Structures are given as C-alpha cells and as structure tokens.
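User: quick one - fold this with zinc ion bound?
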Amino acid sequence: MNKKVLERHEVPVADTWDLESIFSNDEQWEQVAQQFKERVSEIDEFRGRLDESSNILFRALSKQLELEEQLGKLFTYAHMRHDQDTGNSYYAALQDQAYGLMSILEQKTAFVTPELLAMDPKVLDALVNEKDELQAFAHMFDQLKKQRDHVLSEKEEELLARAKEALLASSQAFGALNNADLEFPTIKGEDGKEVQITHGRFVSLLQSKNREVRKAAFEAVYATYESYKNTFAATLSGQVKGDIFQAQSRKYNSAREAALSETHIPLSVYDQLVETVDEHLPLLHRYVRLRKKCLEVDELHMYDLYTPIVKDVDFSVTYEEAKQKVIEAVGPLGEEYVNRLKKGFDDRWVDVQENKGKRSGAYSSGAYGTKPFILMNWQDDVDNLFTLAHEFGHSLHSDYTRSSQPYVYGDYTIFVAEVASTLNEALLHHHFIETLDDKEKKLYILNYFLEGFRGTVFRQTMFAEFEQLIHAKVEAGGSLTADELTREYYDLNVKYYGEDMVIDKEIGYEWARIPHFYYNFYVFQYATGYSAAAALSKQILEEGQPAVDRFLSFLKTGSSEYPIDMLKKAGVDMTTAEPIKQAMQLFEQTLDQMEELLEN
Ligand SMILES: [Zn+2]
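Assistant: Sure. Structure tokens for the protein plus zinc ion:
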C-alpha cells in the first residue's frame, strides 16, 4: 500500500481502457471535432419547419440524434482522457473543447423542443401517425407532453442553453481542487513507514485494524478539508444556486421537484424513502452497538466505522482473483450474461490501476457506439471487488441496452441504473455466504454486507436529507456558509448514528469531499436502487429462470419506458414503501445471523 503511485505513462497497456477504439489518437479526435463544428449547422434548415410535413419532422429528429450520437463519442473520449490524468493540461483543454461542442449543439437544437410543444397536439399526432418511422419516437413524444408546462420560449431556451457552460463552473472548480490541487499529508502507515494519503488509499487506511492509523488518516484528511472549507462552501453553494436558478427558470416549485421530474419520479418516492429510513434508524443504532461490542472499545468513533469487525482475517483480493469471483457470482443470471462480462475483461473495458492525477473513485461510463468503460483505482481488497462487480452491473446494463435499443432509447435513467449495479453486489454477497466455510471470513462478509447497507441505504439517505435541506435553505432565502454546512451535516450524523457513537467534530467537514452533492439530487437513487435490487435478487435466487428473464428484459429496455413502469415489470413497485421495508428486513436478518455466529 505504501508503494509509489505510478505516472500515467508507466501503467501497462493491458491495465488501461481501450479509448483508442473510439478514436485511434488525439489528432483523429481533433479532426472529428472540427467536422462536427461544421456539420452542426445542418440542423438549421429545419428551424421553424417542424410542422411542415412528417418527412421534415423525421429528418430533423434524425439529424438531431445523429449529431448527439457523434457528440457522445467526442465527449466520452475527452472526459475519460482527462479523468485518467487530471493534471494533463492537453486533456483538460480537450475536455473543455468537448463541453464547448456540447454547448454549441444545445444552442443549435434549442428550437426543437419548444417548436414541438408549440404545435397543436392534434397536428403532432397526425404527423406521427402519417409516417411509420416516426412511431419509433412515440415514447419520446409522450415524455415531451409531460414537460409541456416547463418548456420556455425559443429565445429563453437558447439563453438557458448558453448559460449552461457557465453553470458548470462550480462543479469543475470542485473537481480541480479535489482531484488535482488538494494534497493530503503523509501519516505513519501500518508498517510504521510514512505513507502519503490519496483519495484511493483513504478508504484502505480507514479500514486499518490499527486504530492509530485510521485515526491519523481520518484526522489528516478532514484537517485538509477544513483548511479549504470556505472554498468548498463556495463551490457547493454555487452548485446549489445553479440548480435552483434552472428549476425556477422552468417554473418548478423546487430544485428537487425539477430534478425528479426529469426522470418522471414522483416526489413521494423520495419522501417515502426518507420517512421509511428514519423510522428504521433504531436498526442502525443496533448495528453501532454491535460494532462497539465487537471492537471492544470504550468509545466508538467515526474512524472506527470502516474497519472490519472481525479481527485477524486476511482477506486481500488481487485483481485477477476478483475477475474470477465476479464471473462466478453472476452465474445465476445465465450463460449469455456471463459471456458478455468475460468479454468486458478481455476487451479492455477497465482502467484498472491508480496513477498520479487520476480521478478518484470508480465509475462506469461510455456512450452509444463505444464500449461501456469502467474506471477503477484498484487496491487489493474486498471493497474493490464489490465495486468491480457493481461497475460491471452498470456496464452490462449499457451493453444490453445499446445492443437492443435504437439511439433514441439507448440510455437509461439513473433511477434504474443503480438497480442493475447493486444486483450484482447482492449476487456476490450471496455467492460468498454460500461458498465460504471459514467462520471468520463469513463474519467478515456479513459485516461487509451490513457496512455496505449502512453506506448505501442509511448513508445515501442521509446525503439525500442533507441535499434537500441545503437546497430548501437557499430557496427560503438563506445562504450556505462553511460553518452552517458543517453544523447541519454534523447534526444529521448525530441523528443517524445515535447515542452509542462519538460523533467526532471532524466528520462535520465530510460534506466538502462528496462529489455527489454536485449531481443534483442523485444520491437518493442509490438507496431506492439498493432496495429494489435486494428484492429482485431474492426473486432471481428463489424463482430462477422467470425472474432472470424479467431482469434481462429490464436491462434491454433502455429508456423506452418510464422507470417506475420498467421496475414494476421486473418485479418491484417503487411507489410503495414495500421494497425499502424488505431491504430493512434483510438488514435485520443479517444482523441476527452475525450476532448468532459471534456467539458460537
Ligand atoms: Zn453505481
């Protein structure tokens, strides 16, 4: 863990993602970008003419989609090159250029939606019925109808499109500070040698069995965030104001309502999540007590949350071992799914290693017509194994969708995305519980599940509450200072973890390091997705083929249906509290299993 972090050019090719499959080199990207700039004006001839004939309408929409598809590839290449080495100024500029192209396309196509919505719905329906090819856009037209009240005039839409790039400044500044400029100090590692803290190493250090190590890492990281607290407060506050500006411009009652309506999720799904999780906080408090007992400490601190409860279990996993585990674990999904997954490993979907300047964390990305790439910052532990399974869940979802749907529906909403990824984690957990004989390792995995549940359902719901709270504060005319953010965040931790936990003052600064607060009401979907996945994995394991078939057809649906409807067909109804309650039962059962095993 204390080995030197490689420079980007030192990473072996086999461990890097195959971005050359999108553009063979940077020159080709520049050429295509240049062509794109010239071709983007081809949409102009349709301006003001969408109601002229079904042919014009079809050609205009096809042109728009064709340009968007091409931009998707340009953007994917540029942002992933940037992410692999955020300190590389050439790629930073390339990403800027891609954002610029996106802004040009949005300006050029800003007339399409308002023109469609300005049309008499009967005229639009008649045009659609006239031409078979337009039937393929039926669901898109239906979505448009639902937006009718929130689309502005052509001039206003154009203005908003132009403002969009400037509105990204807060999150870009956050990214630059957090990923490139911020430097963490060195601390004494487990072997007594100095180790420099990085984003990638922080989690591993917090998992250390040596309390001094995890305490030192915890304190060093949050002291660093504290020293930049005003800058971080400015970037977060800027983001929140931007969210609200856009929501108010579009006449929504709140930023939250605007964000959820984009994917047609009723606010009640969000409220119900927060309510149901709040009702079940005593289960989290019970887990805190169990942890305190297992660690045999007088006081349980925030830096004691990530270390395994089970002592002396060596459970390191190399990347090669992880590959095998993931392949075995998804077996219940059938041969075809497994083969697609193997192909992902062979075809360099994954950028495996951490290197200097690489974006922290992990994600699955890509665009229609590219491979569904995965960014990792590999460390040899169980956490990375589960993350790999998770990201492959996303990438396989993309793979199924893109090979089954036309471009217009070749994407999926984030609300369903987390179901596909978390399901793989649930299968991996099940696989471990079935195959592990070693009591200590079994305990480790049970604890890992409880910890994952804490991190996904409880923690993300806490994030969701925080997000709702800071937006509401600004919407009510308040402001977000560093001290205010810190106090609110700290208080939420007190509520969530309860009386058996010492809520260290440092945790108050955690809001500063969470990239998801820049994603506009994204995180609640981790919790709803997790709950849906828990319910679906149960169906797949108990029911077999019929449940697998429902799930695979869910993966192929893309965005051709509303997410709530897709999930209903797959087997879970998210408009009820039921899936969240089921997930809570699973948490309680696992607590029981763990306590029982500990007593034997
Ligand atoms: Zn995910």
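One thing worth noting: The pocket of zinc ion is lined by residues 390, 394, 418, 421 (CB under 6 Å).
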